[in-house]
Amino acid sequence: MAHVLAASPGRVFTVTELARRLGHSGGAVGNACETLVCRGEAERSGSKPRTYRSTSATANAAQHAAPSPPAPGGTPPVPRQASPQAPAAPPPNGRPEPITRPNGQRYHPRALATLPDVEALQRLREAQVAVLLYGPPGTGKTSLIEAAFPDLITVAGDGDTTVGDLIGEYTQDANGGYEFVYGPLVTAMQEGRALLLDDATLISPKVLAALYPAMDGRRQIQVKAHKGETITAADGFYVIAGHNPGVHGAVLTEALASRFSVQIQVGSDYDLAAALKINRTAVRIARHLAASQQAGDVGWAPQLRELIAFQKIADVLGTEAAFANLVGIAPLEDRDTVTEIVTKAIGRPVTALALGRQL
């Protein structure tokens, strides 16, 4: 994140632009930006939409951060028929091989109907059947989509997303003039790429309405802000969306739901968590809480993302600290229940991770 801001001093970036460059979900990018702001390593310059720019401390932060993200322009277009990351044939053990995502992490395919999920999404794209993935944050919705579509363009949806964020808007150039810069929707249509609406149900229905003509039989949109030109989708253009039902403000309207003929529930794969050598007790606690959540007894359960983080924390700070953090990240309304379950599972009292006395 700091690399992108530091590389363009004074330039203002929206969350959508940063998410597109970095290949991460809008929620993750927005949180990372706010963390930089809290540290004084970036500045929030606008709220509708949220925009950020570098400060005098950003360059130093970039030197201590991860390697630089891909250069502007994003992932090059990949023909719709090409699926270079998908296995050509099932391996001898009958299981598809893991697929490397743009960020270098590996995705382990799961079953969807009678196919690996990645292959199923690719076939649905070929048939031009739009898909909505829904489930709690951290269950792997974005990971699956990135694994299935190497040519993906991502829109990080939130309440501040505007029509301009989708279609494009006039931006001041280096000479002081203004030029129209196409948004991710137009780019995906022109290049025949897949477009992910991440957290689509946080976007205003009025904004989403600008997308609908591209998804129906017309496969066209009119860019009123740019001479009223008409953009026609090239072969391969495809829209897929993610929805987190439990997130405040997420509303799945009838108009949006009707555009997605296939709606797939995504939950955490706790078997995968066990296969990844994550602490067995932590996985057992997560399964217990997930069952209680489904029964309506608790509102929160650790997902695969939290379990992966648990193991990283355990490797660095120790297992006790990881269990304490697991309690601490539970929502306040569920923390007592989570504490009770964790305490019973590990056989000793546990409280939220906190600083102790001065050393």
Task: Describe the protein's topology.
Elements (H helix, E strand, L loop, with lengths): L1 H6 L5 E2 H8 L3 H14 L3 E5 L2 E4 L4 H6 L35 E2 L5 E2 L3 E2 L2 E2 H10 L4 E4 L6 H8 L4 E4 L6 H5 E5 L5 E5 L1 H8 L2 E5 L6 H4 L3 H4 L4 E4 L5 E4 L5 E6 L10 H4 L4 E4 L4 H6 L4 H15 L9 H14 L1 H10 L3 H15 L13
Parallel strand pairs: 8-15, 8-16, 9-12, 12-15
Antiparallel strand pairs: 1-3, 2-3, 4-5, 6-7, 10-11, 13-14
Give your account of this protein's structure:
The longest helix is centred in the last third of the chain and has 15 residues, at 280-294. Helix 2 crosses helix 3 (26-39), helix 5 crosses helix 6 and helix 13 (280-294) packs across helix 16 (332-346). A hairpin with a 2-residue loop joins strand 6 and strand 7. The radius of gyration is 22 Å and the shape is globular. The strands form six sheets. Strands 9-12-15-8-16 form a five-stranded parallel sheet. The protein has helices spanning 2-7, 15-22, 26-39, 58-63, 117-126, 141-148, 163-167, 184-191, 205-208, 212-215, 254-257, 270-275, 280-294, 304-317, 319-328, 332-346, and strands at residues 13-14, 43-47, 50-53, 99-100, 106-107, 111-112, 115-116, 131-134, 153-156, 168-172, 178-182, 194-198, 220-223, 229-232, 238-243, 262-265. The protein is 38% helix and 17% strand. The chain is of the alpha/beta class and 359 residues long. It has 16 helices and 16 strands.
